[in-house]
Specification:
heterodimer, A: Cytochrome Bc1 Complex, Chain A, domain 1, Cytochrome Bc1 Complex, Chain A, domain 1, six-stranded mixed beta sheet, B: Cytochrome Bc1 Complex, Chain A, domain 1, seven-stranded mixed beta sheet, 13 strands
Chain lengths: 497, 483
């Protein structure tokens, strides 16, 4: 044995002169593999430091230096999004406006902007979501100033060419048509509409009609109203000098006048909660049924946030969560299921779901319901589950600081969500404080088993009968827009059925 | 490297991380910079080999208190045999069901349960497994990874195999059968490569083959391919190299060396004539795909083809994008790109039409633009622009321990040189306008596959419908490519 090992080492040393061959310690006694190696000393949490300042026009400037690589992440984040600024105009307007910023400025055509960025080797991305928007890039240190100048030009001086609007409108309409073939998108859209109704922004989506209604005047007006420093957070992370960067920002944005204020996040009342119902959207011959189960939940500033994070981790937030363990690992009904709370400034949804093989749609629904009943009532969280979830959350925090853009997001989010500057320093303590009683309480509060929307997109012909037979909830057939399908076109509701 | 054919264990968050890292490992769509740029193209590392043949690569990075363990086995779907397709990937799933000293569930508990993550992925060419953990859990990660390399079969039974078979079938349903345009990649594999060619079937496999895999298949496959001499291990992140070396020797050193692995002989593919196919899918908008046989990662023409893709599509001034999306506005979007596997590669163009424009017209427009490019070529400035983002892409890849590990192992496995990322970068930046013109003429020839995906019952929407042969739902109905 030893001879063989030595000979092998010798041969490898010849064959791979550039590679060291590592001596294997002579094993006096064989390795005991039954013992799990204990962890080493836990690393200290290192939260990146940052400085905060106010720019001449009222924008907040956050700078965090990190010098290990010649990279810079830059972003301007705006508080408020389509839900606050689109209310008067058609849905899809804010997204259209942000996607037109690169279509040309008072001094540069869209082609010139594109060529300039390509030569700099970077990309500027802009978008406006439901409650916030941003424009930003990651560049090498040497290309930072030049890229920033282009960003400022795009944001402050866009010209919104009419032909560009028509081109983007046509592209958006194609994408909307394609999304009607995509079961995941159908499921998410119908789920939102069922939960929030037509009046609440959380239930609204851009439609063919709303995209067709967007005018250039709408775009110009939204741009003017939205991109204002009074609600802006400028975040710079990476290989920069804080003091120098402040000067750069003041200079580049000298022509961006003080205006705008932080928006209020007032949402209309939620629709009356309805008794638990299965909403079935027909996708003929679908190989899988796409599940979305849930109801409106709490906003991000809920005092129950940490308890809910721990709860969700156990229920459906990781691979070995109760839901994924049961439905994927034990039963093999799916490639994966999960759960989440959406938070945000308003009542973001609690949602669980995944794609289930069609033939097991009924059985999987029973298992989903069993796990929800379990976490709320029948099977309270164990000490071991609680500890593992806490360990995972607390020890996973450093991942939030692993790149310049991740650090930028982590720091900016504190302001976006109205959280304290020492949030990350206090994170471990807040997670540790969660008790089993807290989990039972928040589960009962936020997972209301009597008022769940169960949205299933799948092959109605094969799954409706079995779903009905489970007796879990009445079934309502909806179309792709979440409108009830009349019973005349409804083969499952024949007289006497 | 064939990211499009990547099949992974789970769809939850870690998958995204992995895909990002894998694509970051490729210098994306090229882009050039001055010669001094090469100075930034650096990953400090050391490498060593155990007597049993395991190659290990260590690279420290103290910027975040985490560490990635990543191991590649040089086996993928191309090592399968017809009738047992999808086996390499199914086996990847079995590797997560526990091993001799690691009961089911402990692997997850010591990774995601301590604030980390784990996953695996399979391509045509290789299978990988990784753990990303807090820095103080490196030793247990190595213990986990070594146990399944050395002792997987101790705890294997048919029930475990069956459970994973069901999950993989669901993975296939989710990623292929229930996705609009989801079967395109599979149809191309069948059409482009002759029957029984190692690249002619999908990584995730066919349903009936997944049903056929037996317990003995698992055992034979493991013994043949999951030996230390067929693996490369990388540890990247915040750790002490001397200690890590000791742990690698301790946990992997006593795993016996396996037999030398026979690599399948992969014949290069050349299509003598055009194959035209039409596939009816549950979509409302048709799509045109054109694919040519190209080269794999070991052939230098791949760099010029990568640059060609970036000159043809992407930014609004790229040739196809400008002509079809901006000028005539016949297309909603267009993409052109080179995909390189270990032994083969493909160059593919995809066009989504705007309403009122036919695939036939779009194909003619694409061909006009390509013919003109083949005649006239591009400017040095086009090439420069197309590769100017390479440095940034590389540097951003350095921010991920896993991304770095993948770059280093990729070089070691496919080029016998963990340093190959530098060679790759230099070769990409050395591409000239003349190279791009030459590869366009050499590869974008008549021997190609043109696939129209059309709504159900709308074969007339195909490009040149009368000349296009229908491809059915089942692979046994697939014509072409089997000559």
């Amino acid at each position: 044995m030893n001879t063989h090992v030595r000979l092998a080492r010798f041969l490898y040393a010849i064959a791979l002169c550039a590679t060291t061959v590592l001596a294997v310690p002579q094993a006096q006694q064989p390795l005991d593999r039954t013992k799990v190696p204990p962890p080493g000393k836990p690393p200290e949490l290192h939260v990146p430091a940052w400085t905060k300042a106010v720019v001449h026009n009222g924008a907040t400037l956050i700078v965090s230096e990190r010098h290990d690589l010649p990279l810079v992440s830059f972003s301007i984040t705006f508080l408020g999004g389509a839900n606050q600024f689109e209310t008067a105009g058609p849905r899809g307007l804010a997204a259209m406006t942000s996607s037109m910023l690169n279509e040309g400025t008072t001094t540069k055509t869209g082609d010139q902007l594109s060529d300039a960025l390509q030569s700099l080797g970077t990309n500027i991305t802009a978008n406006i979501g439901g409650e916030e928007g941003s424009i930003g890039f990651v560049s090498t240190k040497s290309k930072f100033d030049a890229t920033l100048a282009i960003l400022a030009d795009m944001m402050m001086n866009p010209v919104f060419p009419p032909d560009a609007l028509e081109r983007l409108r046509a592209r958006t309409l194609v994408m909307l048509t394609q999304s009607k073939d995509q079961p995941n998108t159908i499921g998410a859209t119908v789920f939102a509409k069922v939960l929030y109704g037509a009046e609440h922004p959380y239930g609204q989506r851009a439609t063919e009609a709303s995209v067709k209604a967007i005018t250039r005047d709408d775009v110009v007006a939204l741009h003017k109203a939205y991109y204002q420093p009074g609600r802006a957070i400028i975040t710079v992370v990476g290989d920069v000098n804080s003091a120098a960067v402040k000067g750069t920002i003041e200079r580049v944005f000298a022509a961006w006048p003080k205006a705008g204020e932080k928006p209020s996040f007032n949402y209309p009342k939620l629709p009356e909660r309805r008794p638990t119902t299965i909403y079935l959207v027909d996708k003929p011959k679908a190989a899988q049924s796409v599940f979305n189960i849930g109801l409106p939940g709490p906003p991000r500033n809920t005092p129950d946030y940490f308890a809910l994070q721990v709860l969700n981790h156990i229920l459906g937030g990781q691979f070995q969560s109760r839901l994924n363990y049961n439905i994927r690992e034990v039963h093999g009904y799916s490639y994966g299921v999960n759960s989440s709370f959406a938070y945000g400034r308003g009542p973001g949804a609690f949602r669980t779901g995944g794609a289930i093989m069609s033939a097991k749609t009924d059985a999987a629904l029973s298992e989903f319901m069993k796990e929800l009943r379990g976490i709320v009532r029948d099977r309270p969280v164990t000490d071991e589950e609680l500890q593992t979830a806490k360990d995972a959350l607390i020890q996973g925090l450093p991942r939030s600081f692993a790149s310049v853009s991740a650090i930028g997001n982590a720091i900016t989010n504190l302001t976006v969500q109205g959280l304290p500057d020492d949030y990350y320093q206090g994170y471990a303590k807040a997670v540790s404080a969660v008790t089993k009683e807290d989990l039972l309480r928040v589960a009962k509060t936020y997972i209301d088993l009597d008022h769940l929307a169960i949205v299933i997109v799948g092959d109605r012909a094969s799954i409706e009968g079995p779903l009905k037979a489970t007796g879990i909830a009445p079934i309502l057939i909806l179309d792709l827009e979440a409108n009830p399908v009349s019973s005349s076109s409804n083969p499952g509701n024949k007289p006497g059925n | 490297m064939a990211t499009i054919n990547l099949s992974v264990r789970r769809i939850i968050l870690p998958v995204l991380v992995l895909l990002l890292c894998v694509s970051a490992a490729r210098p994306l769509a090229g882009q050039r910079r001055g010669s001094s740029a090469a100075d930034a193209i650096r990953i400090p590392f050391e490498t060593f080999k155990l007597p049993n043949g395991l190659t290990a690569i260590l690279s420290t990075d103290k910027s975040t208190p985490t560490v990635a363990v990543n191991i590649w086995y040089h086996v993928g779907s191309k090592n399968e045999i017809p009738g047992r397709t999808g086996f390499a990937h199914l086996f990847e799933h079995v590797m997560f069901t526990g091993s001799g000293h690691v009961p089911y569930g402990l692997h997850d508990k010591l990774t995601e349960g301590v604030g980390g993550s784990n996953n695996g992925s399979t391509t045509n060419d290789r299978t990988n497994y990784f753990e990303m953990v807090p820095a103080n859990y490196l030793e247990s990660a190595l213990w986990l990874e070594s146990d399944r390399m050395g002792f997987l079969l101790d705890k294997l039974d048919i029930a475990k195999l069956n459970a994973q078979r069901d999950i993989v079938k669901n993975e296939r349903r989710q990623s292929i059968d229930n996705q609009p345009y989801g079967r395109v990649s599979e149809i191309f594999s069948e059409a482009m490569y002759p029957k029984a060619h190692p690249y002619s079937w999908p990584v995730v496999g066919y349903m009936e083959d997944l049903s056929a895999a037996s317990e003995n298949d698992v055992k034979d496959f493991f013994r043949l391919y999951y030996a230390p001499n067929n693996a490369v291990l990388a540890i990247v992140g915040d750790f002490d190299p001397a200690q890590a070396k000791g742990w690698v020797a301790k946990y992997f050193g006593d795993i016996p060396q396996g037999k030398p692995v026979q690599r399948p002989a992969v014949a290069p593919v050349k299509l003598e004539a055009e194959k035209r196919l039409v596939y009816e899918d549950r979509v409302q908008i048709p799509r045109l795909y054109i694919q040519w046989p190209a080269v794999g990662v070991k052939h230098d023409d791949g760099y010029a083809l990568e640059v060609l893709g970036a000159i043809l599509s992407g930014p609004r001034t790229a040739r196809l994008t400008k002509a079809l999306v901006y000028d005539t506005q016949a297309a909603a979007n267009v993409s052109a790109r080179q995909r390189s596997s270990e032994d083969v590669g493909e160059f593919q163009i995809t066009v989504t039409p705007r309403p009122g424009h036919t695939l036939t017209d779009l194909e003619a427009s694409v061909d006009d633009i390509l013919q003109r490019f083949i005649r006239e070529g591009s400017t040095a400035e086009d090439v420069q622009k197309a590769t100017s983002g390479a440095e940034l892409a590389f540097l951003r890849g350095l921010e991920s321990n896993l991304g770095k590990a993948n770059q280093l192992i990729d070089g070691a496995v496919f080029h016998g040189d963990a340093h190959y990322f530098r060679t790759h970068y230099q070769k990409l930046l050395s591409v000239t306008a003349a190279d791009v013109k030459r590869v366009a003429g050499a590869y974008l020839t008549k021997g190609r596959v043109v696939l129209s995906v059309v709504p159900m019952g709308k074969r007339d929407q195909a490009s040149k419908p009368a000349e296009s042969q229908p491809v059915g739902e089942r692979r046994s109905n697939v014509p072409g490519g089997r000559s």
